[in-house]
Amino acid sequence: MDDIARARQLRRKQTWAEKALWRLLRDRRFSAYKFRRQHPLGDYYLDFYCAEAKLGLETDGFGHGFPNQQRHDAKRDEFLRAQGILVKRIWNWQLRRQLEWVRYNLWNLLQQRAPHPGNVPPPRRVTARVLNPDRPPPHPNPLPVRRGVGGESRRASLRRDSRHSLSASAASPSPHLMGRGLG
């Protein structure tokens, strides 16, 4: 299989971590640096490659912690280092739990290798969402919205019940307020 066909196949079968990182890097979104996805170089394919900074990014899952894989990665990194390419590895869990940290360190690294003078650090996000970082956070209401009998939401049902229980509380306390088995 030729390099281009293999790269296309790898792009179609991305991991969740590669998809998440690609959302940050594609279309020069990340501080106007151009990244390529599944870039062939020799016998290897770089997950992400920035030619301007000669930087390769690799997303690593749990399989990269095993000794055989670590030896393979070291051999690959040595080949890429001989080509003048710096390889940085990002653990998948970091993309889920430390996305802001990954973004800031990547920005610093790119500025060191190929500075863009007008660039400012990436803005800090309030949320650490990975799969859809630009989507607003869910509504902070602690009560879940569930549809009850007749399409009524749980909140509406609770409001209706509280009105009835308050009006009837003088005559007899509501069992919901007293708890089970009491009264």
SSE layout and pairing:
Blueprint: H1 3-12, H2 16-25, E1 36-41, E2 44-50, E3 55-60, H3 67-82, E4 86-91, H4 92-97, H5 99-113, H6 154-168, H7 175-178
Parallel strand pairs: 3-4
Antiparallel strand pairs: 1-2, 2-3
- Average per-residue pLDDT, rounded, comes to 75
The H/E string reads HHEEEHEHHHH
CATH architecture of the domain at 3-113: 3-Layer(aba) Sandwich
* Rg: 26 Å
Task: Please write the CATH class name of the domain at 3-113.
Answer: Alpha Beta
User: What's the story with the biggest beta sheet?
Assistant: 4 strands, mixed
What is the fold named in CATH at topology level of the domain at 3-113? Endonuclease, Chain A
Total number of beta strands: 4
Number of helices: 7
The shape, in one word, is: globular
Q: Roughly what fraction of the amino acids lie in strands?
A: 5-15%
SS content category: alpha+beta
Largest sheet, order of strands side by side?
1-2-3-4
- Fraction of residues in helices? 40-55%
Identify the CATH homologous superfamily of the domain at 3-113. VSR Endonuclease
Report how far the terminal alpha carbons are from each other: 78 Å
Q: Report the uncertain regions.
A: 164-183
Compact summary:
This protein is of the alpha+beta class and about 180 residues long.
Written account of the structure:
It is a single chain. Helices cover 42% and strands 14% of the residues. The longest helix is centred in the middle third of the chain and has 16 residues, at 67-82. It has a four-stranded mixed sheet with strand order 1-2-3-4, with helices on both faces. It contains seven helices and four strands, in the order ααβββαβαααα. With 183 residues, it is an alpha+beta fold. The protein is globular and about 40 Å long. The model is unreliable at 164-183 (pLDDT under 50). Strand 3, helix 3 and strand 4 form a beta-alpha-beta unit. It has a domain at 3-113: Endonuclease, Chain A, CATH 3.40.960.
